[in-house]
């Protein structure tokens, strides 16, 4: 399978292999416009816009690509939970999902490209990781077990050409949200290590320390 990412077409992946191609701009291009696939009427290159926001209803973090929800996710000390809206009328056996130590691939069997084919933010324990199709919620639920317990993941996937992106496009998570993620993991660790106390409403002043390394490091159960 090929490597390019085309978030906009997971629902139509079975329709697009012959009529168009993906390009370095991160979108599909009709065959008759391949000479200058990134050119617009104003001769500007359109860069994909990526953003992570918190869903106040579920508490999950939502990854947006060009203002479209691609997936949501959350994490705890041990794992990353990734929730991808599933294309309609597909059974679990229709999906081709491969979890590698530092790469995640998600697609449909029988097609020549993946919907997601990216490096994970950090290393994954592949033996303990898994996935399933939640038919009630109509989403693919992927559980990535962290190879380093207590490690903070700022995002699930590193994205497109991360090393070449300018600073604004790399930082797809707001610094305040980043601090909240660190705080949630740190309080989870405190709750685990001090079961007689309730840390749910605890406040942390200033920058939140690394939950994995703080006060002697996270313990392994």
Explain what this protein looks like in three dimensions.
There is one protein chain. By secondary structure, this protein is mainly beta. 10% of the residues lie in helices and 30% in strands. The protein is built from 2 helices and 11 strands, in the order βββββββββββαα. It has helices at 167-170, 175-193; strands at residues 20-22, 28-30, 50-54, 61-65, 68-75, 79-85, 95-100, 103-108, 116-119, 124-134, 139-146. The protein has a 6-stranded antiparallel β-sheet, with no helix packed on it. The protein has a 3-stranded antiparallel β-sheet with strand order 7-8-9, with no helix packed on it. The longest helix is centred in the last third of the chain and has 19 residues, at 175-193. It is globular. Mean pLDDT is 79; it is low at 12-45.
Structure summary:
This protein is 10% helix and 30% strand. The protein has 221 residues and is mainly beta. The model is unreliable at 12-45 (pLDDT under 50).
């Amino acid at each position: 399978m090929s490597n390019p990412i085309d978030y906009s077409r997971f629902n139509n992946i079975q329709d697009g292999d012959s009529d168009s191609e993906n390009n370095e701009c991160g979108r599909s291009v009709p065959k008759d416009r391949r000479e200058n696939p990134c050119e617009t009427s104003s001769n500007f290159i359109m860069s994909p816009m990526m953003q992570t926001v918190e869903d106040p209803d579920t508490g999950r973090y939502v990854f947006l690509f060009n203002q479209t929800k691609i997936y949501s996710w959350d994490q705890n000390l041990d794992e990353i939970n990734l929730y991808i809206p599933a294309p309609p009328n597909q059974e679990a056996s229709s999906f081709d999902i491969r979890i590698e130590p530092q790469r995640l691939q998600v697609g449909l069997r029988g097609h020549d490209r993946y919907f997601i084919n990216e490096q994970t933010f950090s290393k994954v324990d592949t033996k303990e990781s898994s996935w399933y199709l939640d038919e009630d919620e109509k989403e693919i639920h992927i559980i990535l077990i962290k190879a380093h317990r207590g490690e903070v993941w700022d995002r699930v996937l590193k994205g497109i050409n991360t090393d070449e992106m300018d600073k604004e496009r790399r930082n797809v998570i707001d610094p305040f949200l980043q601090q909240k993620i660190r705080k949630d993991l740190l309080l989870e660790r405190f709750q685990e290590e001090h079961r007689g106390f309730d840390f749910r409403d605890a406040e942390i002043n200033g920058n939140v320390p690394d939950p994995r390394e703080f006060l002697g490091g996270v313990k392994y159960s």
